[in-house]
Automatic annotation (TrEMBL):
GO molecular-function term, one example from the UniProt record: GTP binding
PANTHER family: TRANSLATION FACTOR
InterPro entries: P-loop_NTPase, T_Tr_GTP-bd_dom, TRAFAC_GTPase_members
Annotated protein name in UniProt: Tr-type G domain-containing protein
Keyword Ribonucleoprotein: no
Taxonomic path: Eukaryota, Metazoa, Spiralia, Gnathifera, Rotifera
Pfam families the UniProt entry points to: GTP_EFTU
Residue stretches making up the Tr-type G domain: 1-81
Native source organism of the sequence: Rotaria sordida
């Protein structure tokens, strides 16, 4: 799932650590609607930043990896999922 957030993680530190630290934004329009995409941090150290980003949203999409073993690895000692 990292490659999806990489597009909005423009900060060099975020790309090096492969973690969203600050919320990212992108937008697009259709003929009738204007959409803003927010990328909020998911790492446990950045929960306040995640809350700030999530509070701006009307809807949410939760992205979870379906690669074999990747999701389960997050339940190991010191990991997060």
């Amino acid at each position: 799932s990292w490659y999806l957030s990489w597009a909005l993680d423009t900060n060099e530190e975020e790309r090096e650590k492969r973690k969203t630290i600050e919320g990212g934004r992108a937008w697009f329009e259709t003929e009738k609607k204007h959409f803003i995409i927010l990328d909020a941090p998911g790492h446990k150290c950045f929960v306040p930043n995640m809350i700030g980003g999530a509070a701006q949203a009307d809807i949410a999409i939760l992205v979870i990896s379906t690669r074999k073993g990747e999701f389960e690895t997050g339940f190991g000692r010191g990991e997060q999922t």
